[in-house]
């Protein structure tokens, strides 16, 4: 299943060419919260991206091995494999994939211990939908303009954590 549809539990994304379906970037969203997963997928799809969404890190890893993506957006607190464990697997497999961690509780200790995780961005929850879209756009633009396809690690120590999602700007 490709593009606009959410993946069912255990279902994998279909193959795409160079992480894109047509000219639309292919994004994988991994979040155990069904409502947030659906919201992210809907918002990103309406903004012109092809989105696959799965519920945990293990299913996310299967999707990453089965298809090519331009971007991974993952929560940290996931069943089976955490977001950090998923990113470690991505890096160990030498996948040139930018990763955005959208998390209520950012794993600052794990990030400090392992700078090789090379996160493209952090989105501490709650965040506005506009922040999600701007982050995705910025990361994809930086990735496309970079010869190495590696994005500098953000200053994540300055990012606060909270919970929830804000739907509109103040």
Provide an overview of this structure.
The protein has 170 residues and is of the alpha/beta class. The chain has one domain: Response regulator (Rossmann fold, 3-Layer(aba) Sandwich), CATH 3.40.50. 33% of the residues lie in helices and 16% in strands. It has five helices and six strands; from the N terminus they run ββαβαβαβαβα. Strands 1, 2, 3, 4, 5 and 6 form a six-stranded mixed β-sheet that branches. Strand 5, helix 4 and strand 6 form a beta-alpha-beta unit. The radius of gyration is 14 Å and the shape is globular. The chain starts with 19 loop residues before the first strand and ends in a 25-residue tail after the last helix. The N terminus is likely disordered.
Q: What does the secondary structure layout of this molecule look like, with pairings?
A:
Blueprint: E1 20-21, E2 24-30, H1 34-46, E3 50-54, H2 57-66, E4 71-74, H3 83-92, E5 99-103, H4 108-113, E6 121-124, H5 129-145
Parallel strand pairs: 2-3, 2-4, 4-5, 5-6
Antiparallel strand pairs: 1-2
Helix pairs in contact: 2-3
What's this entry about, in short?
This protein is an alpha/beta fold. The chain has helices at residues 34-46, 57-66, 83-92, 108-113, 129-145, and strands spanning 20-21, 24-30, 50-54, 71-74, 99-103, 121-124. Strands 1, 2, 3, 4, 5 and 6 form a 6-stranded mixed sheet that branches.
């Amino acid at each position: 299943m490709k593009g606009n549809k959410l993946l069912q539990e255990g279902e994998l994304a279909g193959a795409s060419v160079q992480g894109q379906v047509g000219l639309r970037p292919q994004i994988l969203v991994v979040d155990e919260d069904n409502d947030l997963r659906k919201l992210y997928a809907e918002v990103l799809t309406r903004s012109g991206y092809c989105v696959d969404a799965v519920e945990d890190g293990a299913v996310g890893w299967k999707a990453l091995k089965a298809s090519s993506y331009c971007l991974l957006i993952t929560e940290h607190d996931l069943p089976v494999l955490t977001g950090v464990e998923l990113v470690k697997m991505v890096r160990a497999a030498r996948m040139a994939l930018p990763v955005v961690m959208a998390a209520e509780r950012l794993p600052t200790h794990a990030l400090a211990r392992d700078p090789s995780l090379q996160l493209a961005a952090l989105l501490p929850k709650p965040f506005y939908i506009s922040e999600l879209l701007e982050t995705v756009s910025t990361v994809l633009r930086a990735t496309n303009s970079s010869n190495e396809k590696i994005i500098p690690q953000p200053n994540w120590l300055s990012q606060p954590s909270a919970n929830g999602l804000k739907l509109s700007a103040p």
